Write a sequence for this structure.
């Protein structure tokens, strides 16, 4: 710790600003000060009363400084002891200003007079610092040894380069994806992104080292650069000479594999001091104590976690049960991330994604020196360049070039071929052989080669990279490939490992080639969660089975045998990964894995066989669905290769929601000629089109147009490569049967790109069908903001189109208007906003530049909108007036306003308005009828006042635009229109009282012109009197629909009755049971009218008025019951009305029939009823029925049809009571005889008197009864 001569009081005063701004948990410090009796309880309460952290800190420091030196010294002691909780370190990875390191600040104060505290401080010359220097030395030596192992493959030592870190892409954007299930892909429970081609976050190893994150997981496929990143972290740490820096322990993959399945080391001491580095004699306890007490200064790097960690010490460190504040960096492959341990290990996840384009070029130039021909030859070979995004493969590519510079133009393009060449080179160097005798040398050492292959395979099955029980002789073949491992095995002191684990997988595949009987077992294990990591062997195996590779390894396995193995097993490989299945004999914990079509393509690319590709395409029915995948360049190369092998039938490729790198996209473009259809989501189409335009190859653009239905998707940015726009123009040059459709994806600040787009398309605008804008899937800004940006872009391109037309004379404005589809794209409301905004945009340009553009854009301004939608909250009436003058056409105006927003300047627009509407204001959004009416009345008052002042016919014009049948709506809105007009009249009367002036006369034409389908009156309100006054204004009687009548009072009924002379037809609206407590039966329309009439008679005293009888007659008339006095219809109606009256009295207990006396007193002298026309039942009492029987003709005048009609009208129900003479019984018997069998004839016989002869005549002709009711006497008589 650095010393200082300042007193504690001075140190606190000088550091006050730092503490006020950055001290964490001040309440914790206050509590410790209270324990040391520095603060009283009252002072603690005063400090904690403040909620803001900085205010609380300021209050605390004020009290401490007042108390002087002793309190200041105690504060510094507490801050040192609680520094991990209260004092922050720097965190450069956060998007905020870098704050000072307060750990460093507190450590600079000397606590020399406090021996207890001083013993805990780190002395610059103490054992802990010396151990840190030992760790740095070990780190440097380890890194040099690892790099020397890499350089061991280069024959010319002069070409060996010192270690230089070439940046790889590190991405922290990882998310769970839910993809659509396809025919060949099942949704995984957890699927994480595996490739993003851009170094978006600029994350570096230095950030990982300095980050405050305590658990960091680096994920990436084999060879992608995980180890390179953590070794660079180690390198950065080793080069830092700050004595206060941390301890770092790096365990490489061989060590991790060795310890993961072992009980050793059994303690933290043995892990650090026996497995890694032992401190100087006698310092172990001090160093271990410092590590345990200051675990925040410890960094562990565990490189290469495979699956389960069986060692308890490692488990406790990873679980933070040991050294809980230590930083842990781990690396793993993607398949290991799903294992039980890591899937539940919360961490800061970083994807290692290999080299981007810049890094590939930098790496090739660094490794190959200034030989630009070699660099260019690799960069121009897309297949080879795609491999180089994996650092391990880039190293092997450069190694192969170094081996055979004369073959630089024939570099290997498959991974397997690269490893085979490495294999042959190492064997050549080991035996010091010429190429001519190399095959013989390899064949002579087959025993050693097979031994190494067996050990590689067995170690892989055991999930370790450490090979034991190897031949230690200097002349053994293993020394050409293996290096001594840092791992210490319990069974032996010697352990070896390959340069990289991918080399071990290559040797394991070589073992399968030599022992093909094991292939089926490996394929079966690949289908399980436990064995899925073995699939990398299969990829190498497919490459080894290639006929191109066979001649290079025929000294290991004869070509004939390779062809035989290929014929037997290649289809099994395809089926295993295309249609995985649960293997028999495995426990139930093994779940079915996802079908992996992409991996099959990689295997077939390694195999390099058109026949095998055709077999795959047949199995998938020529459909490659890779939706939701993240394809790196190497995978794109494989997919492109498979597609290009199709000769008989074109392929359908599905790449929806995929992500690519630029080299990968170029490879996909190379296969377009073999595609029948290409399915892309809009975002992916942008990527593909950018790659096609960047390539400058016309065939790529033509192929994409064909497959994308002549749509070009482009991301539009402010800073865009002008070459892209130039090539867009080149694409448009060609005339095709189909016109091109542009789909633009706007990003932030893309407005200025409109000029560039315009320049590229204006010359060839007739070849463009449409320009539309694609809504982003993940809106980082609001949808409203995006729409505004689209509108601004369209206005800008119209402006540039007008300028282009003025400059060249070519008519482009009308063409632009057509391709932008403005009228069809925007709603009427949006059209109004667009045209007004365009006017302001053009006006600003004219003012700034002094150029008159508006005349050129006349066609745009006159084309739409058909209806103006104006919201005065964001529209000025003056702007509207200017545009209306420009259009010079009367159009309807739909106003959205409230009383507070109405703009009286609208008066000036009246000459250009055909109708004034408030449709949406009332019906859709605001439902502000009251505010609308108040604003409208203010407008009428303003128009009246202006007319008086200026003499202009302002009031007449306003009245005219409001005088149309559907006012204030665009179409018939029944109830709403009637309610609005009644409210308008009522408000106008109130307005007149307030202003002491007349306004209703101005509204007369409005009320007379409005033609509601029917005026609607809610009898439960007080609007009947208003309706009467409005109806009086009409020139003819109007229909009325009545609701709310079931529960009302007499005064409202009387007010309604006064409206009857002005009503042409009255329709009754059934009462909703939810609106009333009165239970109303379900009735037909006619029954409802009668029920209403009776209900009204029950509640209104019609008899007591001079017009009582007239009111009833008028009610009958408007209800449609008016008939001539002697018509059969009137007779029948009176009978039914009387019957319903009786029923109503029964249901309600009220008397209403007496109110009908005026009607029945005017009944016809002769009742005429046409029963043949009667469809329903005839309701009449018993006495009336007897009168009917007596009136029937008998003898020769008997009319059977009349009797049948009468029986039907009575619904086959007859009640016989009172005195029944023989004549009546004979007539009734004749009628009953007309009933046919099966009819439900119901007869009730309750006579006061009947003779035997009458009874006989009554039932003589009856064939069948449904029901017969009779009293006791009648029963005896019968």
């Amino acid at each position: 710790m650095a010393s200082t001569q300042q007193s504690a009081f001075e140190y606190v005063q000088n550091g006050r600003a730092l503490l006020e701004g950055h001290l964490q948990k001040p309440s914790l410090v206050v509590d410790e000060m209270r324990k040391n009796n520095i603060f009283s309880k009252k002072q603690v309460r005063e400090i904690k009363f403040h909620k803001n952290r900085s205010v609380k800190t300021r209050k605390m420091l004020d009290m401490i400084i007042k108390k002087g030196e002793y309190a200041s010294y105690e504060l510094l002691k507490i801050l040192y002891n609680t520094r991990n909780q209260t004092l922050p370190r720097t965190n450069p990875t956060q998007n905020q200003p870098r704050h000072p390191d307060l750990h460093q600040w507190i450590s600079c104060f000397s606590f020399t007079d406090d021996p207890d505290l001083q013993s805990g401080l780190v002395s610059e010359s103490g054992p802990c610092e010396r151990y840190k220097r030992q760790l740095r030395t070990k780190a440097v030596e380890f890194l040099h040894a690892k790099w020397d192992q890499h350089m061991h493959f280069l024959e010319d030592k002069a070409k060996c380069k010192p270690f230089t870190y070439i940046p790889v892409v590190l991405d922290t954007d990882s998310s769970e994806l839910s993809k659509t299930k396809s025919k060949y892909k099942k949704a995984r429970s957890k699927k994480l992104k595996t490739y993003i081609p851009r170094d978006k976050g600029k994350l570096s190893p230095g950030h990982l080292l300095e980050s405050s994150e305590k658990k960091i997981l680096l994920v990436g496929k084999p060879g992608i650069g995980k180890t390179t990143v953590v070794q660079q972290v180690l390198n950065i740490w080793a080069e830092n000479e700050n004595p206060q820096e941390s301890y770092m322990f790096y365990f490489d993959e061989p060590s991790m594999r060795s310890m993961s399945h072992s009980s050793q080391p059994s303690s933290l001491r043995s892990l650090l001091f026996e497995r890694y580095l032992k401190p100087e004699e006698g310092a172990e306890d001090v160093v271990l104590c410092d590590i345990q007490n200051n675990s925040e200064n410890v960094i562990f790097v565990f490189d290469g976690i495979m699956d389960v960690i069986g060692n308890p010490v490692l488990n406790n460190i990873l679980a933070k049960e040991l050294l809980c504040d230590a930083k842990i960096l781990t690396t793993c492959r993607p398949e290991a991330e799903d294992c039980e341990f890591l899937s539940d290990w919360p961490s800061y996840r970083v994807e290692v994604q290999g080299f981007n384009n810049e890094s590939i070029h930098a790496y090739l130039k660094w490794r190959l020196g200034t030989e630009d021909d070699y660099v260019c030859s690799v960069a121009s070979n897309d297949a080879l360049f795609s491999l180089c995004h994996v650092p391990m493969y880039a190293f092997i590519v450069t190694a192969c070039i170094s081996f055979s510079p004369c073959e630089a133009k024939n570099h290997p393009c498959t991974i397997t071929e690269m490893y085979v060449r490495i294999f042959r080179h190492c064997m050549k160097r080991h035996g010091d052989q010429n190429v001519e005798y190399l095959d013989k040398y390899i064949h002579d050492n087959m025993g050693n080669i097979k031994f190494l292959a067996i050990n590689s395979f067995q170690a892989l099955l055991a999930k370790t990279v450490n090979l034991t029980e190897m031949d230690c002789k200097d002349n053994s073949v293993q020394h050409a490939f293996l290096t001594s491992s840092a791992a210490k095995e319990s069974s032996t002191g010697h352990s070896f490992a390959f340069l990289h684990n991918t080399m071990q997988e290559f040797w394991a595949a070589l073992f399968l080639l030599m022992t093909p009987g094991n292939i089926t077992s490996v394929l079966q294990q690949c289908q399980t969660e436990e064995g899925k990591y073995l699939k990398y062997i299969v990829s190498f195996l497919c490459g080894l089975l290639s006929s191109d590779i066979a001649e290079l390894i025929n000294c290991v396995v004869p070509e004939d045998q390779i062809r035989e193995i290929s014929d037997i097993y290649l289809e099994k490989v395809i089926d295993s990964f295309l249609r995985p299945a649960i293997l028999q004999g495995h426990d139930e914990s093994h779940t079915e894995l996802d079908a992996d079509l992409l991996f099959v393509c990689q295997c077939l690319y390694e195999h390099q066989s058109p026949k095998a590709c055709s077999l795959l395409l047949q199995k998938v029915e020529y459909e490659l669905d890779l939706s939701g995948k993240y394809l790196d360049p190497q995978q794109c190369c494989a997919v492109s290769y498979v597609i290009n092998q199709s000769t008989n039938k074109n392929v359908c490729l599905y790449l929806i929601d995929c992500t690519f790198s630029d080299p990968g996209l170029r490879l996909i473009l190379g296969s377009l000629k073999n595609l029948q259809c290409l399915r892309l989501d809009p975002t992916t189409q942008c990527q593909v089109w950018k790659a096609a335009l960047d390539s400058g190859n016309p065939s790529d653009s033509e192929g994409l147009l064909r497959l994308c239905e002549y749509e070009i998707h482009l991301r539009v940015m402010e800073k865009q490569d002008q070459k892209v726009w130039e090539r867009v123009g080149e694409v448009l040059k060609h005339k095709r049967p189909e016109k091109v459709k542009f789909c633009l994806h706007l990003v932030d600040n893309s407005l200025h790109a409109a000029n560039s787009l315009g320049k590229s398309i204006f010359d060839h605008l007739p070849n463009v069908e449409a320009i539309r804008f694609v809504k982003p899937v993940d809106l980082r800004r609001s949808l409203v903001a995006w729409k505004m940006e689209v509108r601004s872009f369209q206005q800008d391109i119209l402006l540039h189109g007008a300028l282009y037309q003025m400059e060249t004379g070519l008519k482009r404005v009308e063409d632009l208007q057509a391709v932008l589809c403005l009228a069809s794209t925007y709603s009427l409301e949006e059209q109004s906003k667009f045209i007004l905004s365009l006017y302001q945009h053009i006006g600003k340009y004219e003012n700034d530049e002094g150029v008159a553009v508006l005349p050129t854009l006349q066609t745009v301004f006159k084309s739409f909108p058909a209806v103006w939608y104006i919201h005065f909250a964001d529209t000025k009436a003056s702007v509207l007036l200017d545009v209306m003058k420009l259009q010079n056409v009367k159009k309807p105006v739909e106003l959205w306003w409230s009383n507070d927003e109405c703009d009286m300047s609208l008066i000036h627009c009246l000459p250009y308005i055909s109708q004034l509407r408030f449709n949406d204001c009332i019906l859709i959004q605001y439902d502000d009828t009251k505010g609308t009416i108040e604003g409208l009345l203010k407008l009428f008052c303003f128009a009246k006042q202006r007319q008086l002042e200026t003499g202009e016919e302002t009031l007449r014009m306003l009245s005219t635009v409001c005088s149309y049948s559907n006012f204030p709506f665009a179409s018939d809105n029944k109830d709403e229109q009637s309610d609005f007009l009644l409210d308008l009249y009522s408000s106008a009367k109130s307005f007149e009282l307030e202003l002491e002036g007349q306004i209703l006369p101005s509204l007369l034409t409005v009320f007379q012109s409005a033609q509601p389908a029917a005026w609607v009156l809610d009898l439960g309100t007080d609007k009947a009197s208003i309706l009467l006054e409005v109806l009086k204004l009409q020139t003819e009687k109007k229909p009325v629909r009545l609701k709310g009548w079931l529960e009302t009072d007499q005064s409202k009924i009387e007010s309604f009755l006064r409206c009857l002379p002005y009503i042409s037809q009255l329709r009754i609206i059934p009462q909703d049971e939810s609106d009333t407590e009165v239970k109303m039966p379900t009735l037909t329309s006619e029954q409802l009218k009668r029920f209403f009439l009776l209900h009204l008679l029950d509640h209104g005293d019609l008899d007591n008025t001079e017009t009582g009888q007239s009111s009833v007659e008028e009610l009958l008339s408007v209800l449609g019951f008016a008939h001539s006095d002697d018509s059969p219809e009137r007779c029948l109606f009176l009978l039914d009305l009387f019957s319903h009256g009786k029923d109503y009295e029964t249901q309600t207990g009220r008397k209403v029939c007496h109110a009908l006396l005026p009607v029945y007193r005017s009944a016809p002298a002769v009742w005429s009823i046409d029963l043949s026309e009667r469809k329903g039942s005839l309701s009449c009492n018993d006495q009336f029925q007897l009168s009917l029987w007596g009136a029937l003709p008998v003898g020769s005048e008997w009319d059977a049809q009349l009797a049948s009609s009468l029986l039907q009208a009575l619904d086959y129900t007859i009640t016989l009571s009172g005195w029944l003479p023989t004549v009546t019984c004979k007539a009734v018997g004749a009628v009953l005889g007309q009933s046919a069998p099966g009819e439900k004839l119901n007869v009730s016989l309750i006579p006061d008197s009947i003779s035997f002869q009458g009874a006989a005549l009554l039932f003589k002709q009856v064939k069948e009864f449904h029901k017969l009711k009779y009293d006791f006497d009648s029963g005896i008589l019968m």
